[in-house]
Amino acid sequence: MPRQLTVLAAPDSPGAVLGTVLPAARACLDGTAPLAVLPAGPPAAAAREVLAADEPLEDGADLVVVTSGSTGRGRGVLLPASALRASGTATLARLGGPGSWLLALPVSAIAGLQVLCRSVLAGTTPTVLGPGEDLAAAVARMPAGRRYTALVPTQLRRYLGSEPDALRALDAVLVGGAATDPGLLARARAEGVAVVTTYGTTETAGGCVYDGVPLDGVRVRADDEGIAVAGPVLAVGYRRDPEGTAAAFVGGEFRTRDAGSLGPDGRLTVTGRLDDVVVTGGVNVAPQAVEGVLREHPDVADAVVFGRPDEEWGQRVVAAVVPSAGAAPDLTALRPWVADRLGAPSAPRELHVLDAVPTLHTGKPDRRGVAARLTGAGTA
Question: Which residues form the AMP-dependent synthetase/ligase domain (predicted)?
């Protein structure tokens, strides 16, 4: 008999997370009640359309997570309970055993939902970071024993600047969802924070490669067509999209659109999205690398980089930056800063100044949204 999907609204408080979403996640892991959680705000309407809760659910799916649409549109990723359990069990083994988790990410995204699933598997109750609550206060509420959390790079940067002691109190801080600047990682580790970089997608039940090393049971390969992942953590496909499923899940692998390479020791290095590469003057430029270098400049607090059509170069590199306090970033200073570190083709030819970098509901920078908003705007 076809099963129907239970769709929960985005929780508006820690009590709603623990009282509504956590029990639903437990039932989802048991395979007894398929689940989806809507994002907060305007994205909820589009997510409802993707989920189509009135239509029967595809076989094998226990959790449906709507992606943020960073590749153009959101999709409903169909995850079986077995993938969530495999991911959670392998994560706990890699980190040193079961512990308590601090939830600091939205539970509409796979990273937040996995905090709940790992808590269920560990037999613990997560501590939920409240709206506007200091990280230190939330960490102080966590029980004794091993303590973990998962953050996006923006959160790591913020807490490292304001509450490094709270980060140091945790046994592992998983960081993923977007590329993490090497400089930020080095700074965090120098401060004594147990940072673990994670790579994965919603289709791989979240992070499946930790510090470049695949979790137990996960297999990764990389070639000119991108990174491919295999193993027990994979989704079974996309909601109401058999063609998309057939194109992305081939031969027991999930074909990502991420670029990367495997070193001689088998460690994975991810260089960015194939879709986001800027080809300028015949040279491929990775926006994430340029963003990382820009953030190292003393006048820049944050940055997003993208390409725009250019009659002479094919595409030109465009940077949108958030100034550091009291600073006024200038293109004539930022171009040589980037060129000296990444080469002349990577140097931005256009600069915009933002008050803040907008994010998707998953916490990832909304690079496409920034590019669309700045289309036709003047240069700095």
Answer: 62-217
Q: Clarify whether residues 225 and 320 are in a common domain.
A: no
> Among 50, 39, 35, 51, which residue's Cα sits nearest to residue 9?
39
Sole residue written with tokens 């623990």:
18
User: Do 232 and 370 fall into the same domain?
Assistant: no
Helix (H/G/I), strand (E/B), else coil: 49? helix
Q: Are strands 206-210 and 195-201 parallel, antiparallel or unpaired?
A: antiparallel
Provide, rounded to the nearest whole percent, the portion of the chain with pLDDT above 90: 78
Number of domains in the chain: 2
| Per-residue model confidence (pLDDT) at position 37 | 97
pLDDT at site 183:
87
Q: What's the gap between Cα 58 and its chain centre?
A: 25
241 falls within a domain: yes
Instruction: Please name the residues in contact with 180: beta carbons below 8 A apart, sequence gap of 6 or more.
Output: 153, 156, 197
Binning pLDDT at 50, 70 and 90, where does residue 70 land? very low
The per-residue pLDDT for range 201-242, each reduced to its tens digit, is 999 999 999 999 999 999 999 998 899 999 999 999 999 999
How far CA 32 is from CA of 6, 48, 243, 289, in Å, comes to: 11, 22, 28, 44
Question: How many degrees, rounded to 5, is the angle at CA 346 between CA 343 and CA 350?
Answer: 135
Are 284 and 317 within one domain?
A: yes
Residue whose entry in the numeric block shows the structure tokens 């994965």: 200
Do residues 108 and 363 touch, judged by C-beta distance below 8 A? no
What pLDDT was estimated at residue 366? 83
Query: Is the same domain home to 223 and 355?
Result: no
The overall average pLDDT reported for the chain is 92
C-beta of residue 76 within 8 angstroms of C-beta of residue 239: yes
- Give the closest residue to 35 by CA, choosing from 91, 101, 110, 86: 110
* Domain around 67: 6-272
Residue that terminates a domain, selected from 239, 256, 272: 272
> Rounded to the nearest 10 degrees, how much is the dihedral formed by the CA atoms of 130, 136, 139, 140?
-110
